[in-house]
């Protein structure tokens, strides 16, 4: 028996001994009768309940942000310990980093269902904050309703569900780079029958025509000499997205607390301006996606018997991704065709048929089933046991539309997994100690059939090559929260688990320049978190709260995007890659901390400051040749590891008109420098970045109309992200938001 299993067993024995004592105490209390002259009901907000539940979690409220021009990803990027990795402007590909954990280790959810189920046209990149109730950011162990194939944490977007009032909300905004956004949402409930409706939709368009001037942008003259840095305006970078979500069902009935069936549809058009790095611009390469999903949501407390609850979330979606790349000339960042010298004359430089290699027209269809069920039973007051099952399957079909036999030669892939988990949650020692013990069993299976034409005796024959892999693993973890005093909580967690590579990591995703790698192995992580949360300390007009968390994470066969090795290239231009793949990195170790302080004055001034730092280093001592690895102890490239954010908001009442509210905002962020190439050559450094944003919103006396203006990247700073891709400069945005109350 390992020391972790021994601790786990001792904690269970302690919980059950306390449980039996609490039952006796409850019986004694029920026999006492007292006369109460006054009754004061005190309850915790949902934010406080989650943040003091023992998990390393931060709750992001979206109420105020929905009135400004902030996107959901911008909100996340300001949160402690979160770094949003975006390959350019609005609509570009996004990955999330939670204190050094990213990729398949991180779960991205919408109401507990993986966002990948809905496709790239409905995700955190384009869902407006007005559709969101709150965002839960977990680091490490996840609660039972999010149990899955993850260990690094998760981001769970909780969409608005309240249908207690019949309301509608509409918003429209316009800003720099020809960016236009609009969204509409409405809720309705019939009080007699409980029949309810909720719906929302959005539209986004942008040219993303911002200037770049850093070292990542190049110009190649007719002598094939590379000039960098080069100032240019991005082109072939249009993004257009539209989506809607409609649900109908019943709330607060005898047979269901909530029962909804719904439809989620979305589509987008995305021009692809470059590859993994910015060095080579593309013209005419684009993709179109479409997604249709059917939804089922059911939950009921006291299901069949008292204290038994059932929750079911299921989605069946069909997604398609069309990719076209047929322009056969190379271009420079000034928008002109590159030239070369041939026989003393300048002639256009031709490619292999497309901007990224050969001419390409492909279509990828995915049919995804994602179902999660949770059965929980309250054993006694403060003690709950839950059984969870999650099934996820992606049936994928890749077709080459340039090939007349594309249907017969389509590559078919299937990735499926079952996850069974058990949770025991307890509140003991007068509810001061909260614990959660988790055990999970995962089975994974992949199948791929690849068809090829073979010529035998002058006859073309289609040969189907099949490959299958399967594995299973067991994981476990635990969380703890202890109330040292009224508002001071000590929180800790640990987890030991595996993560399977995702369908896109295994089979590739050409629309985001990811090549396949069928040899990927599962990643194992052992994580520890320990911190504290000091809830609001009230000094009359002043309120202060603190949060801090330290973590230690050991990764084995870490799955990450492959970066360039400086020892394998001749010059800087060799690092200007257009494609990459996911690989197993080997052993890594990340140690660091995060902290946040919030200050409120008279409920008018709201200020916060957070900091996050981790040291994610490569810990593989011996290479494949049996010698000391040259990169041992080196920071994993292409990962920002030091960030700071400060946010200030001040409210003025009765400005210009009585009962009006004027809110002002100021936000600043800092990202420390980091390298994008193994070996850390100086030319691969991503410089440190400092950003400043200003905003103002005015709520008219009726409370229905809000007008706002935001200036992002006020100083037009040089900002970068994944593989040193430059992000937008200064931008000005305007927004109008109107609420219709009780329209029916």
Automatic annotation (TrEMBL):
Matching InterPro entries, A to Z? Beta-barrel_TonB (IPR000531), Beta-barrel_TonB_sf (IPR036942), Plug_dom (IPR012910), Plug_dom_sf (IPR037066), TonB-dep_rcpt-like (IPR039426)
Which Gene3D superfamilies does the entry link to?
Answer: TonB-dependent receptor, beta-barrel domain, TonB-dependent receptor, plug domain
The molecular function GO annotations come to:
siderophore uptake transmembrane transporter activity
Extract the PROSITE patterns matched here: TONB_DEPENDENT_REC_3
- Domain annotation TonB-dependent receptor-like beta-barrel: ranges: 462-714
| Protein's membrane topology | Multi-pass membrane protein
Annotated Gene Ontology cellular components are: cell outer membrane
Domain TonB-dependent receptor plug residues, every copy: 55-152
Keywords associated with the record: Cell outer membrane, Membrane, Receptor, Signal, TonB box, Transmembrane, Transmembrane beta strand, Transport
Source organism's superkingdom?
A: Bacteria
What family does the Swiss-Prot or TrEMBL record give for this protein? Belongs to the TonB-dependent receptor family.
Protein's name in the database:
TonB-dependent receptor
């Amino acid at each position: 028996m390992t020391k972790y299993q021994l601790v786990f067993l001792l904690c269970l024995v302690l919980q059950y001994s306390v449980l039996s004592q609490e039952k006796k105490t409850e019986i004694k209390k029920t026999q006492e009768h007292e006369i109460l002259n006054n009754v004061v009901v005190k309850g915790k907000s949902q934010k406080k309940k989650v943040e003091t539940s023992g998990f390393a979690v931060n709750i992001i409220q979206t109420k105020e942000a929905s009135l400004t021009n902030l996107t959901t990803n911008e909100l996340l990027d300001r949160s402690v310990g979160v770094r949003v990795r975006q390959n350019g402007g609005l609509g570009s590909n996004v990955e999330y980093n939670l204190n050094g954990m990213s990729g398949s280790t991180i779960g991205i959810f919408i109401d507990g269902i993986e966002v990948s189920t809905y496709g790239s046209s409905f995700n955190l990149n384009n869902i407006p904050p007005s559709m969101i109730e709150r965002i839960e950011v977990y680091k490490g162990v996840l609660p039972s309703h999010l149990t899955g194939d993850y260990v690094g944490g998760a981001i769970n977007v909780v969409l608005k569900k309240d249908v207690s009032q019949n309301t509608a909300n509409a918003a429209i905004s316009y800003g720099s780079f020809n960016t236009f956004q609009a969204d509409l949402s409405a809720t309705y409930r019939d009080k007699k029958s409980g029949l309810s409706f909720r719906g929302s939709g959005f539209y986004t368009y942008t040219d993303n025509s911002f200037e770049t001037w850093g070292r990542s942008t190049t110009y190649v003259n007719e002598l094939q000499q590379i000039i960098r840095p080069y100032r240019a305006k991005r082109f072939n970078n249009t993004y257009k997205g539209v989506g809607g979500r409609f649900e109908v069902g019943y709330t607060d009935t005898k047979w269901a607390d909530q029962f909804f069936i719904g439809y989620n549809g979305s589509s987008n058009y995305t021009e692809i301006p470059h590859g993994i790095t910015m060095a080579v611009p593309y013209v005419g390469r684009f993709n179109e996606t479409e997604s249709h999903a059917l939804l089922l949501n059911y939950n009921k407390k006291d299901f069949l018997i008292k204290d038994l609850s059932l929750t079911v979330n299921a989605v069946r979606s069909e997604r398609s991704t069309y990719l076209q790349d047929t322009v056969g000339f190379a271009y420079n960042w000034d928008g002109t065709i590159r030239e070369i010298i041939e026989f003393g004359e300048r002639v256009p430089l031709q490619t292999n048929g497309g901007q990224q290699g050969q001419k390409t027209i492909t279509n990828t269809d995915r049919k995804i089933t994602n179902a999660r069920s949770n059965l929980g039973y309250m054993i006694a007051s403060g003690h709950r046991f839950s059984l969870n099952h999650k099934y996820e399957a992606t049936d994928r079909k890749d077709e080459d539309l340039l090939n007349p036999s594309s249907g017969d030669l389509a590559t078919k892939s299937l990735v499926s997994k079952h996850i069974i988990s058990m949770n025991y949650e307890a509140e003991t020692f007068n509810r001061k100690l909260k614990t959660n013990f988790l055990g999970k069993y995962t089975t994974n299976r992949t199948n791929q059939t690849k068809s090829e034409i073979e010529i035998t005796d002058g006859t073309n024959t289609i040969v189907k090559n099949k490959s299958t892999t399967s594995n299973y693993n067991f994981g476990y973890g635990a969380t703890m929260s202890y109330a040292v005093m009224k508002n001071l909580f000590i929180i800790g967690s640990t987890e030991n688990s595996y993560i399977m590579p995702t369908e896109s990591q295994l089979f590739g995703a050409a629309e985001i320049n990811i090549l396949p790698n069928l040899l990927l192995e599962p990643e194992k992580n052992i994580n520890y978190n320990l911190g504290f949360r000091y809830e609001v300390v009230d000094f009359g007009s002043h309120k202060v709260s603190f949060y801090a968390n330290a973590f230690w994470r050991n990764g084995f066969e870490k799955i990450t995007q492959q970066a360039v090795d400086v020892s394998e290239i001749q010059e800087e231009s060799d690092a200007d890659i257009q494609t990459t793949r996911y690989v197993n990195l080997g052993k890594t170790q990340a140690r660091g901390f995060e902290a946040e302080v919030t200050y409120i004055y008279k409920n008018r001034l709201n200020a916060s400051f957070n900091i996050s730092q981790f040291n994610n280093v490569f810990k593989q001592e011996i290479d494949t040749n049996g010698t000391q690895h040259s990169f041992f102890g080196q920071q994993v490239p292409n990962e920002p590891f030091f960030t700071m954010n400060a946010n200030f908001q001040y409210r003025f009442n009765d400005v210009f008109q009585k009962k009006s509210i004027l809110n002002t905002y100021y936000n600043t962020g800092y990202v420390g420098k980091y390298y994008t190439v193994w070996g850390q050559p100086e030319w691969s450094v991503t410089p440190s970045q400092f950003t400043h944003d200003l905003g103002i919103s005015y709520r008219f006396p009726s409370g229905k109309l809000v007008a706002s203006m935001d200036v992002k990247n006020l100083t037009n700073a040089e900002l970068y992200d994944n593989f040193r891709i430059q992000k937008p400069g200064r931008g000005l945005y305007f927004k109008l938001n109107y609420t219709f109350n009780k329209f029916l």
